[in-house]
Amino acid sequence: MATASRTRKRQQAPTACPRCGGVGYYRRDVPVGHPDFGRAIPCDCQAAAQQQARLEGLRRASNLGMLTRQTFESFVPEGFGLAPHLQANLRRAFEACRAYAEKPEGWLVLRGRYGCGKTHLAAAIANYRIARGQPVLFMVVPDLLDYLRAAYRPDTDSSYDEQFDAVRNAPLLILDDLGTQSSTPWAQEKLFQLLNYRYNGLLPTVITTNRELEEIDPRLRSRLADTELCQVLTILAPDFRQAGTESSELSSLSLHSDQTFQSFDTGDRHLSAEERENLRRALETAQSYAAEPEGWLVFLGDYGCGKTHLAAAIANDRVARGLPALFVVVPDLLDHLRAAFSPASTTSLDRRFEEVR
């Protein structure tokens, strides 16, 4: 019994700080009238815990949630299987975001398709600032608008004005997915009020979007186009989550995923020897072109002769190696271009034309 009791006492009596006795504060032995007389001074032994508690408070206030894992260290600036020019583009965006995180001044706009890494980089900026004890507010634009709408409810803890003021005066505001919100007049007006306030105040702001600038509300676009305040980075990388796939909405390559060089048959016994040799040469030419595409390659032949198979095989081979390729059926392309003329279209003709050419 005595042995067990002594063991428990040893476990329950950790070494106390010689200065504060484990309380966390101490008083200096100074005469009456000294500025520190009677003052509780935080002990150095608590500094690490206090700093950690402050960082946790900043993370909770940042609204990052699960994005606390998205850091510069976890980002892959070379991407996955990207062509050299795409690697260089992604590396430049990475370096620019690192520089902005060090000294956030002006606005930084990250453009790119879904999954290209723009949200990761925006969150990395937020996490970098928080790790250095600086407050950040990260908001997904549709969620921000829901948050502001909810402020009108009578059972909310704070008024709409208080909540809107907290967002627009954030020391560093990061808005993710601008352009995905509903385009109601109320939503457009609130976004303009928010961004116009920060624009006039030159407040540091990071924005991500998958939209072309010309597709954004003209009032917002004029702010984003101000080169003296805004740095716009366009990330060309495809979706990280779909490495090895082609992601343009113009493409119909997914319908031809089974048409590869391996599945191309040059030995059909119903063909003559001359026809089989012709197919073999066409296959070798297509394989050589896929390995190093230069100039134009035109396949001519009757319906069902294999020309579409070889064209799709070239595209599939390129995409499988993480290289850019766009497979478009001409009638579909013309339909897309015609649709861009529609007043209701969210994609301009210039964008469509630029994507293809």
Descriptive notes:
The chain is of the alpha/beta class and 357 residues long. The protein folds into 2 domains: 52-242, Rossmann fold (3-Layer(aba) Sandwich); 253-326, no CATH class. It is built from 12 helices and 7 strands. The chain has helices at residues 2-12, 47-62, 84-102, 118-131, 141-150, 160-168, 185-200, 218-224, 273-291, 307-320, 330-339, 349-356, and strands spanning 25-26, 41-42, 107-111, 137-140, 173-178, 205-209, 230-234. The strands form 2 sheets. The protein has a 5-stranded parallel beta sheet with strand order 4-5-6-3-7. Helix 2 (47-62) packs antiparallel against helix 4 and helix 3 (84-102) packs parallel to helix 4. Mean pLDDT is 83; it is low at 1-13.
Please outline what is shown here.
The chain is an alpha/beta fold. It is built from twelve helices and seven strands. Helix 7 (185-200) links the parallel strand 5 and strand 6.
Name its key features.
single chain; 357 residues; alpha/beta; Rossmann fold; 2 domains; two-stranded antiparallel sheet; 12 helices; 7 strands; disordered N terminus
Rg measurement, Å: 30 Å
**Order of strands in the sheet with the most strands?**
4-5-6-3-7
CATH superfamily of the largest domain: P-loop containing nucleotide triphosphate hydrolases
**Mean of pLDDT:** 83
Name of the CATH architecture of the largest domain: 3-Layer(aba) Sandwich
CATH class of the largest domain: Alpha Beta
For the biggest sheet, the summary is: 5 strands, parallel
Approximate shape: elongated
Q: Find the CATH topology of the largest domain.
A: Rossmann fold
Number of helices: 12
Order of helices and strands: HEEHHEHEHHEHEHEHHHH
How many domain units?
2
Helix content: 40-55%
Instruction: Give the beta-strand count.
Output: 7
Low-confidence runs:
1-13
Euclidean distance between termini CA atoms: 87 Å
Beta-strand share of residues: 5-15%
Structural class call reads: alpha/beta
